[in-house]
Write a structure and sequence with these properties.
Layout lengths: L13 H18 L5 H12 L14 H4 L4 E7 L5 E2 L8 E5 L2 H11 L4 E6 L7 E6 L2 E4 L5 H19 E11 L4 H12 L4 E8 L15 E8 L21 E2 L4 E6 L21 E4 L5 E2 L6 E4 L15 H9 L3 E6 L2 E8 L8 E2 L6 H13 L10 H11 L5 E4 L6 H13 L4 E6 L5 H15 L10 E11 L7 H7 L2 H9 L8 E4 L2 H9 L8 E4 L7 H9 L3 E4 L13
Parallel strand pairs: 3-19, 3-20, 4-7, 4-18, 8-17, 18-19, 21-22, 22-23
Antiparallel strand pairs: 1-20, 2-20, 5-6, 7-9, 8-9, 10-11, 11-16, 12-13, 12-14, 15-16
């Protein structure tokens, strides 16, 4: 495909052609005296000329998408850039170098419905040549710069939606230039009903002093859910003092509050509210409860340490609900068993974020410059801002994706947050390598985050670096294409399961011969995992060997190399 044959406005004449065709049909109906058809055709013409509600733009094509008609993107590892500093974990994070549309295409095969949080900071399309479309910078003289940007974003957001889990949330950063268009686009792609909110983030409190009218001091973050009824914010503190809530679990931060009603007044006593006086039987290991007496269970009554008979806060039914929701904690101290409620933060998360730690220069640019030793990137986001977003939206085991990774702030935020709350979140960063950003900024940042610097504490992490390359379809016209694609299945397995195939406890088996060799040479390791091609046949003896060694067999998904990859 050459520059001369590529058309980035393939739909520009569709509406005009349809209108002209209907006009021809009207004339034909008149010539043939089909009077009943004319009003219907005129109504159709009116509908074609009517602007629909919502976002309307001139659609543009992308060369990177057109390229996939003849080429299949695959990942190859840049082994020299592997980071293996977190010795306490076998899990890996990933940095994907290449056009993010190609990375998203492959991620759809490995992470369909598996991403809990997507955070992106896309090009703002300010007209200041801050991004390219089809290898050309888009500036404010381009009459189609808004429609190009919308087309560019729509393709990526559609795949992003498919990557999100049912409880997943996507956050998109933007400023005022494309805010209105982005809201309309997000409403169309994710549904207005799934819009969680639009947050104004003050990132430059002093305002831009070179502007003629308002000195811009804020940007925006659009929060949308995959399915709003299944999504939720975690109960965390963003603005209040986190030291007040000194404990945490998989739900979030909490502090202990006695489940005995301790308030003064007659309604807190046994005599006043006898229904709230009852025994709760607790097992020896403090993991079970009952309202009926059981062997080896201790009875606990709402009696204070000074011997005053009070009441529980709730009736038994509500206590059961608290317990089932993980909001009860039982503590034994010097032989006395006490029951506490886990009191969660009750902070209202507002739609204006004004913490000084969100300042883009002091907590973004300076942080990155100190890590890298010099300024290599303009306008990185505040690490604290991304951490607060992740505190709200991610769980301790979540996978976080940023496919406009830029300087890698999201990766740093993930590892710092993991250290703060003992989480095991994993990140996937995708970025192109324009001006060597992937190699010299994103990767270098992750390396310095992992090892630490004189001014920054080390946060050891594991990371694999993949680059995009292409398999040309016409070079493999038959089943040989599948065999060629199998050569690149390892990165997909590693990406989907967050593993490193060089780990002896992880093996990939693509045929019977490989399996036989592993068994005959006694290379199998107990309690390990084998990722196996679904067509590999195993006899009873082989299955017994795998079972005796407690080896988990994980089938490599067919969609890694299925026929849809090379369908015409």
């Amino acid at each position: 495909m050459t520059e001369n044959t590529f058309n980035d406005r393939p739909h520009k004449n569709e509406k005009v052609d349809s209108i002209n065709y209907v006009k021809t049909m009207i004339e034909k109906a008149r010539d043939e005296a089909r009077e009943d058809d004319i009003p219907k055709l005129e109504k159709l013409l009116q509908m074609l000329n009517t602007k629909k509600y919502g976002l309307v733009w001139e659609e543009h094509a992308e060369k990177v998408e057109e390229e996939m008609r003849t080429k299949i993107p695959v990942f190859v590892e840049e082994k020299s850039k592997k980071i293996s500093d977190n010795l306490a974990s076998d899990d890996y994070n990933f940095l994907l170098e290449g056009d993010n549309l190609h990375s998203l295409y492959l991620l759809e095969k490995t992470h369909f419905g598996k991403i809990d949080v997507i955070y992106i900071d896309p090009p703002y399309n300010t007209g200041a040549k801050d991004w390219k479309y089809n290898n050309s910078f888009v500036d404010d003289t381009d009459n189609f710069r808004h429609s190009k940007w919308i087309s560019f974003m729509q393709r990526r957001l559609r795949i992003a939606k498919r990557l999100l889990s049912a409880r997943g949330i996507i956050i998109v950063a933007i400023d005022h230039y494309e805010l209105a268009n982005l809201i309309e686009l997000m409403d169309e792609e994710f549904g207005e009903k799934n819009r969680i909110g639009i947050v104004s983030v003050v990132h430059k409190p002093e305002g831009r002093n070179q502007e003629k009218f308002f000195g811009t001091s804020n940007e925006f973050a659009l929060f949308y859910a995959k399915e709003k009824n299944k999504a939720s914010f975690r109960q965390v503190l963003i603005n209040n003092n986190p030291e007040d809530y000194d404990k945490s679990d998989n739900i979030g931060a909490y502090k202990l509050k006695n489940f005995i009603r301790m308030s003064d007044g007659k309604y807190a006593t046994r005599d006043a509210k006898p229904n709230f006086w009852y025994p709760i039987y607790i097992s020896k290991d403090l993991s079970e409860y009952s309202f009926t007496e059981k062997k080896d269970f201790f009875s606990v009554y709402p009696i204070t340490s000074s011997g005053i008979e009070r009441t529980w806060k709730t009736l038994p039914r509500s206590f059961s609900k608290y317990w089932d929701e993980g909001n009860i904690e039982v503590v034994e101290n010097d032989g006395r068993i006490s029951i506490f409620e886990k009191q969660r933060p009750n902070e209202v998360i507002k739609t204006h974020w004004i913490k000084t730690e969100y300042h883009a220069y002091h907590h973004g640019t300076k942080v990155l410059t100190e890590l890298l030793g010099e300024k290599r990137f303009d306008f990185p986001k505040s690490v604290t801002l991304i951490k607060d977003i992740l505190k709200l939206t991610s769980y301790k085991e979540s996978i976080i994706l940023d496919f406009f990774a830029g300087s890698g702030t999201t990766g740093q935020a993930v590892v710092e947050l993991n250290k703060e709350d003992d989480g095991n979140r994993k990140f996937i960063l995708a970025t192109n390598n324009e001006n060597n950003i992937a190699e010299e900024v994103t990767y270098e940042r992750m390396k310095h985050v992992s090892t630490g610097t004189n001014k920054y504490e080390a946060h050891p992490l594991n990371l694999k670096y993949f680059k995009t390359k292409f398999i040309v379809k016409k070079e493999f016209p038959d089943v040989s294409l599948e065999y060629e694609l199998l050569k690149y299945v390892t990165p997909l397995v590693e990406l989907e399961f967050s593993v490193d195939i060089t780990n002896p406890k992880v093996q990939i088996v693509l045929n019977e011969e490989q399996l036989e060799l592993l068994i005959d040479s006694k290379q199998l390791i107990s309690n390990s995992t084998i990722f196996m091609h679904p067509d590999v046949f195993r006899d009873a003896k082989q299955n017994r060997i795998l079972e005796d060694l407690k080896i988990r067999v994980q089938e490599i998904p067919n969609y890694f190399f299925g026929t849809e990859l090379w369908a015409k």
